[in-house]
Design brief:
About 65% of the residues lie in helices and about 5% in strands. Strands 1-2 form a two-stranded antiparallel ribbon. The protein has one domain (about 1-285). About 50% of the residues are buried. By secondary structure, the chain is mainly alpha-helical.
């Protein structure tokens, strides 16, 4: 438990302090955000606000995991290294997009096609490697089955199918968080809630882990390194919580694609490693709704020759244009995310109670 707590404390205070210096660095170089011209007019004042705040989150999560393991003399696990590599790789892809916006002095970064290709390449590499590195029990970080709160035995996909499935999850959730990151603190606060729920899930799985000699084979969880998953989940939740100090309205800095893509991919990665892939639909319901609103809007616009379902997509902009204040939208969406996370954890725990 010391590693879990240590990771959280280091990530929290590291982001709180580090973001202050990162903001000053970006301001001096005038590396600011460019705002969509077709968005709500109230967002025009946000033009020029420093972006790429996700760099601090990524750096401190990796540092928190590394430092806590060095101090307590614990070796890194394959699962953790792969998950952190996913965080860094998708963050770097987001950085390329953010840097393109800054260098071009407009809101268009790298092309959507290039971004999707990058996400697919990262997803395939992560999925392929996650199916390897078996431990002494023959357990790999990921499995070739679709999972809900555990692996579903009759939904075995095989190696190729599993790689496609995991790549889809990583691409879908990284884009979903990216779409949600449109209001001050919205994506950061919601991500904090989701990662906090993953922390509880991982800690519970560690206490009921099949790798423990005293575990009940009928109830234990067939996962890999749940203790390390808890450490990374707590670090991510704490880092997002600390970043809210600077990202809450009025935001002094934005996540940027650097942060949003990395956070979304990490959610997908944690769902894969904790065997809660389908549960993430409930746990991350807010992000699913935001992404679905864009899909529905675009599809209906094309099919109806110019008509719209929402005043604007993603969904948070629709409520802004209905007259809701930005902070009202953010808080209410946080509440929705909290309810979804509590429901998901309730479903997760209820399955164990029923089996017991």
């Amino acid at each position: 438990m010391k590693i879990v707590l240590g990771s959280g404390v280091i990530a929290l205070f590291g982001v709180l302090v580090g973001t202050h210096f990162w903001i000053n660095f970006l301001v001096k170089r005038q590396y600011g955000q460019f705002v969509r011209e077709d968005g709500p007019q109230s967002h025009a004042t946000k033009r020029g606000t420093p972006t790429m705040g996700g760099i601090v989150i990524i750096f401190m999560v990796v540092a928190a995991y590394t430092i806590s393991h060095i101090v307590l003399w614990e070796p890194p696990r394959a699962s953790s290294v792969l998950l952190l590599a996913l965080l860094v790789a998708t963050g770097f892809l987001g950085f390329l997009d953010d840097w393109a916006k800054i260098s071009r002095q407009n809101s268009s970064g790298i092309s959507p096609r290039a971004k999707i290709i990058g996400q697919v390449v990262i997803g395939v590499a992560f999925a392929y490697l996650s199916l390897g590195f078996p431990d002494d029990r023959g357990q790999s970080p990921a499995s070739d089955k679709i999972s809900f709160v555990r692996d579903i035995d009759w939904l075995r996909l095989g190696t190729i199918g599993a790689i496609i499935w995991m790549t889809f999850l990583i691409t879908a959730y990284s884009n979903a968080v990216n779409l949600t990151d449109g209001l001050d603190g919205l994506a950061t606060g919601a991500s904090c809630i989701v990662f906090a729920a993953f922390s509880l899930i991982s800690i519970w799985q560690r206490n009921q882990w099949c790798g423990m000699e005293s575990s009940d084979d009928a109830l234990c969880y067939e996962v890999r390194n749940p203790y390390d998953m808890a450490a990374i989940s707590v670090a991510l939740a704490a880092a997002c919580f600390g970043f809210l100090w600077w990202n809450a309205r009025p935001a002094k800095i934005f996540l940027g694609d650097t942060g949003s893509l990395a956070l979304g991919a990490s959610m997908a990665g944690l769902s894969i490693y904790t065997r809660t892939e389908l549960l993430l639909v409930i746990l991350g319901a807010l992000f699913v709704l935001e992404a679905a609103s864009v899909t529905l809007q675009v599809s209906y616009f094309k099919l109806s020759h110019g008509k719209r379902i929402f005043k604007m997509a993603p969904l948070h902009h629709h409520f802004e244009l209905m007259g809701w204040d930005e902070i009202t939208v953010v808080i209410r969406f946080w509440i929705i995310c909290g309810i979804a996370a509590a429901t998901a954890f309730g479903v997760f725990y209820a399955e164990w109670v029923v089996m017991a």
